[in-house]
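User: Predict Zinc-dependent peptidase's structure from this.
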Amino acid sequence: MPIVLAFVVVALLLAWWLGGPWLADFRRRRVAEAPFPAAWRRILRRRVPYLRRLPADLQMQLRRRIQIFIAEKPFIGCAGLVVTDEMRVTIAAQACLLLLNRPAGGYPNLRQVLLYPNAFIVNRVATGSGGVLRDERHVLAGESWSQGQVVLSWEDALEGAAVPGDGRNVVIHEFAHQLDQDNGPANGAPSLAPGMAGARWAAVLAEAFAHLQALQRAGEPSLLSHYGATNPAEFFAVASEVFFEQPAQLAEAYPALYAQFTAFYRVDPLSWN
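Assistant:
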């Protein structure tokens, strides 16, 4: 009997291990095969003009990604906000840009999207001179938490989608952090695409990061927001915004960085123009 029981337990565990991923893939295929709602198409045309640049095959892939994202990731309204399909589709479309040509199941650690009507305030404890602790209030448009949440201001997410060529997009920024957090705390070293060399990635980003820091210290203007000089994680997120929204400028100013991002994101936005 113990041998039979052990065999049954092993068989059940094996079935669970195999069935879990299989069932997830099955559900995603079912969701992606459903017709894309006409109302969602109208939302994309009205709210996310950037998507018109994409080739037809990537637009089709993106729509499938949006359907899966909305089916799997709950949106939770905060500060009295009632979440609508317009909000879900607009944000999902921008977040899923970062998943094009990747395997199914993007953002595996993301459990929910928290949505505020506009910029929100967070209180944090900071260490001042002499080690004195002090409370600080920060007004934010977005945050990405390693515990599985992305927090966004709907007003800022909407503006980021409406102005697609300014290199500023809070949704791309925070979901780049999510990719960075797939393998641990955000540090500018996300899990790379197959065939990419970690040493080359680190060297290229370190050089571009140092250049941005030098511009920031000198008070000189830069294609990349000076906020990216804060640390490597913020540099990666800021550069991701510019990669999608201002690819020609990024390729000219930082050609090696652009090449690394093309390999990492598995798309070449320059070819969409």
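The chain is about 55% helix and 10% strand.
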